[in-house]
Specification:
The structure holds 2 protein chains of 2 kinds. Helices cover about 30% and strands about 40% of the residues of chain A. Chain A is α+β, with helices and mostly antiparallel strands. Chain A has a single domain, classed as Molybdopterin biosynthesis MoaE subunit (Aldehyde Oxidoreductase, domain 3). The longest helix of chain A is centred in the middle third of the chain and has 19 residues. Chain A starts with a strand and ends in an 8-residue tail after the last strand. By secondary structure, chain B is α+β, with helices and mostly antiparallel strands. Chain B has one domain: Beta-grasp domain (Ubiquitin-like (UB roll), Roll), CATH 3.10.20. Chain B has 3 helices and 5 strands, in the order E-H-E-H-H-E-E-E. Chain B has a 5-stranded mixed beta sheet. In chain B, strand 3 and strand 4 form a beta hairpin. The chains are: A alpha+beta, B alpha+beta. Chains A and B meet through strand 4, helix 2, helix 3 and strand 8 of A and loops of B. Chain B: Keywords: Nucleotide-binding. Chain B: Belongs to the MoaD family. Chain B: GO terms for molecular function: nucleotide binding. Chain B: This is Molybdopterin synthase sulfur carrier subunit. Chain B: One of its GO terms (cellular component) is molybdopterin adenylyltransferase complex.
Amino acid sequence: MKYVALQHEKIEIGLLSEKLINKNHGGINLFVGTIREWTGDIQTEEIRYTSYEEMALKELNKLATEVEAKWGADVVIVHRLGLLQITDVAVFIGVSTPHRAACYEGSRYIIEHLKERVPIWKEEKDVDKTRWGGIDADNS
Amino acid sequence: MLTTVKFFAFLAEKTNQTEVKLNLQQCQTVGEVREVISSEFPEIAIDLATCMLAVNMEFQHDGDLLPEEITEIAVIPPVSGG
């Protein structure tokens, strides 16, 4: 089973978690990424996420399919788009598998690859300026 | 024949366009497409070095040959989801 979505609405952790319940699975791993206010001495006010939605869904589906096949997993990946405030949930990654080790590995695999190849961008609005793509990027 | 080229994130801001039509008839490889975009849009020439190109929504390397049928080419700046 896999469920992949991009949405502007609030991410409902409880509802998405329920999709992962499987009588043959003994473990569900949830990774929930949230908007953080402070990164070192940089203060974030809000973050806008945009995407090449059609391609992002394609890439997210590929990731989910890979993890399903490799670890015998059920997978849920939901990323939020639009303007998010501090503490809002930006991404939900849920992986359920027969045994616990595989759901940790599958979850890590998804978030690391999402950050490499899924066309979603954050426009970070700090208290003093706007930056594209986080503090390591220099696209000003 | 003109090909659709799409810009995203700060590339769309810098070029003031999300989609352009370019003549890529002389291009055989993905790298040659990168060079055409770079000369047509010098304002993003520096950024292009760190961007990935996706042909028909599949990431390609500069050495890859272009397919016969191109629906679109997307210029993908470093992604930052999550």
